[in-house]
Design brief:
Shape: globular
Oligomer: single chain
Distance between the termini: 74 Å
Number of domains: 2
CATH topology of the largest domain: Metallo-beta-lactamase, Chain A
Largest sheet: 7 strands, mixed
CATH class of the largest domain: Alpha Beta
Radius of gyration: 21 Å
Bound molecules: zinc ion
Order of helices and strands: HHHEEEEHEHHEHEEEEEHEEHH
Structural class: alpha/beta
């Protein structure tokens, strides 16, 4: 394509055909430190566990890619056009791969706004952006506000060029996404962390993608979801017996009988939250006193101070009918 464009020497045509933008920047500074999870599955983890800030430019969850035979499927491309450009360029430079599919696991800014960089390939019919129906409609509603909020937190420079690009196709439960030897099965979306958390399962590699449902060292956030649905989603993930989980963290086990540790600790937090909220109701407390529910095992986790009270309030609202149905513990 670049040779053809040069030969035509027509600036306008070159612009229209996107020639300038298709030449990847293969400089060392633009390279992505991809880490292999299993052959063909790569992750770009954040430098450190942390809240969104100007220093990390919103890169707080891993970006991952399944790469084979010159094609790539990117899962949760990241927070900004700039981040997405590095992903796209590095997949071309390092693996000779073009991105053919992007999956948005759920509608949070740090996961999806890098869709922006794929707008040209989407318009040219060279790529699909996939999500659940719930995520697509949530992005439609929330992305303008999320983009503004993320820009406030990381600075306009980091978000330069970022536009809102919605998923082009809704995936169905049971659908298979194939990239070379990898087959990723779409599992039923859960309203756990967000209103619709997509889970993908590569059985042959025993890798599960869990979006925001699996965390470590960072307090789970009951953003738009619920405790019981989240616990159920984690039970479904555990039943797969994965060796590797790629969610808001990347976690692996070498022991065939054990779960990746992040699945276990995320479940432990939510189960304890549920137990403590119901116990506080048993003791006659009410929602206004919910700051009395401290969970010392997690106070060292990122965002505990900001999120614990919110999580308790959300859990309280969800569990109050459960408690009324059950009645006080004897
Ligand atoms: Zn999220």
């Amino acid at each position: 394509m670049n040779g053809l464009c040069r030969a035509l020497g027509a600036g306008l045509l070159a612009l229209l055909m996107g020639c300038a933008s298709t030449k990847p920047d293969c400089s060392a500074a633009n390279a992505v430190p991809w880490q292999a999870v299993v052959p063909g599955v790569w992750v770009w983890p954040p430098d450190a566990v942390g809240a969104v800030s100007a220093a990390n430019a919103g890169h707080v969850v891993p970006t991952s890619a399944v790469v084979s035979g010159g094609e790539a499927l990117v899962i949760d491309p990241g927070p900004s056009h700039r981040h997405g450009l590095r992903v796209r360029d590095s997949l071309a430079c390092r693996f000779g791969a073009q991105v053919r599919w992007v999956v948005n696991t759920h509608a949070h800014a740090e996961n999806v706004l890098a869709n922006s960089v794929f707008a040209d390939r989407l318009a040219a019919g060279q790529l699909e952006i996939l999500s659940s129906e719930g995520t697509r409609s949530a992005m439609q509603q929330r992305c303008p506000a999320c983009l503004a909020s993320l820009s406030d937190r990381v600075g306009a420079g980091a978000m330069a060029g970022t536009g809102i690009v919605l998923p082009s196709r809704v995936v169905e439960t049971g659908e298979l996404l194939r990239v070379g030897p990898h087959t990723l099965r779409v599992l039923p979306p859960a309203p756990g962390h967000s209103e619709s958390d997509l889970v993908l399962w590569d059985e042959a590699s025993r890798v599960v993608w869990a979006g925001g449902l699996v965390v470590d060292q960072r307090l789970p956030e009951l953003a738009q979801g619920g405790v019981d649905a989240w616990l159920l989603a984690l039970d479904r993930i555990a039943a797969l017996r994965p060796r590797h989980v790629i969610g808001s963290t990347v976690s692996s086990t070498l022991d065939g009988e054990a779960l990746p540790p992040a699945v276990v600790v995320t479940r432990s937090y939510l189960a304890e939250l549920r137990t403590r909220v119901l116990a506080a109701m048993d003791e006659g407390h009410h929602a206004g006193e919910s700051d009395l529910i401290e969970m010392p095992a997690y106070t060292g986790w990122q965002d505990y101070a900001q999120r614990q009270g919110f999580n308790v309030q959300r859990a309280w609202r969800e569990l109050e009918p459960v408690w009324m149905e059950r009645g006080p513990a004897k």
